[in-house]
Amino acid sequence: MFKNLFKNALTIPNLLTLLRFVFLILFMVIYLNAQSKSQEYVAIVILAIGFLTDFFDGYIARRFNMISDLGKALDPIADKLSHGIIMLCLCTKHKLMIMLVAILVIKEGFMAVMGIRNFKRGIVNSAKWFGKICTATLFVALIALLVLPLSNAAANTIIIICGVVMLWSLIMYIRFFYLESKEMKG
Fold first, then answer.
1. What long-range pairs does 177-182 form, CB within 8 A, spacing at least 24?
2. pLDDT digits (tens), the chain, 186 positions
3. What's the pTM value of the predicted model, to 2 decimals?
């Protein structure tokens, strides 16, 4: 199975995804060491460039038929790592963010375990609509928390809404994997 994962691995889309990891590290280092708002904005611009690589890697992969199993694995890892790094950076400004980090760890831990289980069975699940809603909500919220001058109450409200959406998504995935498992047995 792993042999197929690395077949045709050296593609432009995969290299762009790997580049996103570099931008994430740069963002984190600059953001956490920022001494001014302008330095924070430099970090945010670097993060935005990294997000552009996410758009282009998918576009190029589909447009030029460069879709690979490695790309299918790397892209969601880069997405989750992006969320985690941004959340950890935001923990320095918003104490309630640690709750969101905990929910993310639980949700993504569950998803990783189920993904590995299914991978061993030869099943590759794609993201579900509720997972996409969760990701979109989280993305918008994290960007808002990074760039908007929000009061503590507004920031905490955004964080709580994200927590609720993430928990809802986790429950929906638990239900999905339960029904899938039941269907396989029956």
1. 177/114, 180/125
2. 455 555 567 889 999 999 999 999 999 999 999 999 999 999 999 999 999 998 898 889 889 998 887 887 788 889 889 999 999 999 999 999 999 999 999 999 999 999 889 878 887 777 789 998 998 999 999 999 999 999 999 999 999 999 999 999 999 999 999 999 888 886
3. 0.86
Q: Which residue has the tokens 């919220």?
A: 141
Name the residue among 57, 53, 82, 83 with its Cα closest to residue 71: 57
Domain that holds residue 154: 95-186
Exposure of 50 in the CB half-sphere (CA atoms within 13 A): 25
- What is the greatest pairwise CA distance in the chain? 60
Same domain, 84 and 108: no
Q: Are residues 110 and 170 in the same domain?
A: yes
Residues 76 and 111 in one domain: no
Last residue in a domain, options 90, 108, 133? 90
* Spatial separation of the C-alpha atoms in residues 89 and 142, rounded to whole Å: 10
Q: Which residue reads 């109450």 in tokens?
A: 153
How far apart, in whole angstroms, are the C-alpha atoms of residue 162 and residue 10?
36
User: From its phi and psi, is residue 65 left (phi > 0), alpha (psi between -120 and 50) or beta?
Assistant: left
Domain-ending residue, one of 67, 90, 113: 90
